[in-house]
Design goal:
The chain is mostly helical.
Amino acid sequence: MNIKSLKHKWKSDIKTFNRLFKKQKEFNNINDYILELRNDILDKMKDKDINDDDYQNHLIELINNVVWERTIKLDNTKNTLEMCFTPDFRKQLDGDDK
């Protein structure tokens, strides 16, 4: 995604673009944090017996972590699509450019 080009296309509504761009950065930071947590969880699971209570708790944490990551990725995709739907493009889709 070419941010410079998108920013130029959003010049009529730069406030919305800045809000969406900020959200994009936040989603990327959250995703990095999720991956760090996942690595920690996997490290805790090493050399543990599957019947161990700690292992099972970590497995539940891991599942929740994956679900959280998927949610963030979907939100990030939605945000990216919003950024790509520039004001001019929206007008064209609505038929207001005639």
